[in-house]
């Protein structure tokens, strides 16, 4: 989380006002317990067959509540992903939670392999080209959305896109707003590696970079919340779009029928083997991913700074390799006898891990931050609106189901951490679709972001 800093000028001196933002709970052990109690309460109430809760969850999906309640807990100061503690003598120390890191690096790959274990890859490909079309449409929406948002908001509030004088940029860095927004385009097409690449390409002032991270968190998470809300209305949305969901339903039915055919009351041996599959894969993915990221880091660092270097910079990301290797292992195991462990609850355990990840993502969202920089937030919201509008228009034109719209969007904006979450909310067997699209996003992220930035620079007059 980014906390706004106030700067004043006095003989070229930057004076920073530091705010104490320490939450009530700072121990990860306690915070994890709070999140698990929250998830337990959500699932208990959502399981009620009558009364208020039945009506409530017919409108609001449980997955959305798993995201929003931690966000509210962060907003009221009960928990936080990061904070600054100011002592009485004025000294400040920075603290942070490791829960999102653990969930995204350990539980996410474990969930992916468990959910992929019973996947029918042929049936996934039989879903047709609509998923890829929607993903590409989402990418185009991000590329076009940036310059259009700057044009619209700049005409209303020129100071929002004006180059700020403070904080002072060090040599080789620049304060231009369009340079900062380039990092958003990288994040919203590819992911963190592409975002960092754009920061390097355009040399944005890193003192100001936190503000762009803040916009990324707020806008991307608001959009994800809307996507999750839509899942509860997917059938109505599909009717409005005139979508043909038969291929998706066939895949879900095929996987469900297979699960029923091998379903059994899991023994302790079954559970231990599931643990071995899940975390053995996590271990392998981290081990191989570390070697591959180190190998490609050397190649990338040996190249001259420029577009070519940054186009392949995502290959130096250990997260990229971890997700890719996990998916490959899951697909390979789906062709072995281990596939039958779906009957012992493989996808159910995967879903548990996914919900924990959702809660830690929600924890990163402080709703009060929306008001900290309304100008940049407005640019981000207009940008995301254009992305969403093009997706809805394309879905209507090609009669694509809401599933493809939601996953195509999150494979861009959310990347490999959130695309499987959204996909698995429709059915655990569909998580692989989200992963495959998100991995593709890494490959096109930097090129798309550069194209977007060239146009943003033109409209901003940079």
SSE ordering: EEHHHEEHHHHHHHHHHHHHHHHH
Strand content: under 5%
Oligomer: single chain
> Helical segment tally?
20
How would a crystallographer describe the biggest sheet?
2 strands, antiparallel
**Structural classification:** mainly alpha
Q: From the alpha-carbon coordinates, what is the Rg to the nearest angstrom?
A: 22 Å
Number of strands: 4
Instruction: Indicate the low-confidence ranges by residue numbers.
Output: 1-15
Distance between the termini: 29 Å
User: Mean pLDDT, nearest integer?
Assistant: 82
What layout of secondary structure does this protein have?
Blueprint: E1 6-9, E2 14-17, H1 28-46, H2 52-59, H3 62-75, E3 82-86, E4 92-96, H4 99-116, H5 121-125, H6 130-156, H7 158-161, H8 177-189, H9 192-202, H10 206-231, H11 234-241, H12 246-262, H13 268-302, H14 307-311, H15 318-333, H16 346-363, H17 374-398, H18 402-413, H19 419-426, H20 431-460
Antiparallel strand pairs: 1-2, 3-4
Quick description:
With 462 residues, this protein is mostly helical. The chain has helices spanning 28-46, 52-59, 62-75, 99-116, 121-125, 130-156, 158-161, 177-189, 192-202, 206-231, 234-241, 246-262, 268-302, 307-311, 318-333, 346-363, 374-398, 402-413, 419-426, 431-460, and strands spanning 6-9, 14-17, 82-86, 92-96.
What descriptive keywords fit this protein?
462 residues; two-stranded antiparallel ribbon; two-stranded antiparallel sheet; 4% strand; globular; disordered N terminus
Explain how this protein is built.
This protein is mainly alpha-helical and 462 residues long. It has one domain (105-460). The protein is 69% helix and 4% strand. The protein has helices spanning 28-46, 52-59, 62-75, 99-116, 121-125, 130-156, 158-161, 177-189, 192-202, 206-231, 234-241, 246-262, 268-302, 307-311, 318-333, 346-363, 374-398, 402-413, 419-426, 431-460, and strands at residues 6-9, 14-17, 82-86, 92-96. α3 (62-75) packs parallel to α16, α6 packs across α18 (402-413) and α6 (130-156) packs parallel to α20. The longest helix is centred in the middle third of the chain and has 35 residues, at 268-302. It is globular. The two termini are 29 Å apart. Residues 1-15 have low confidence and may be disordered.
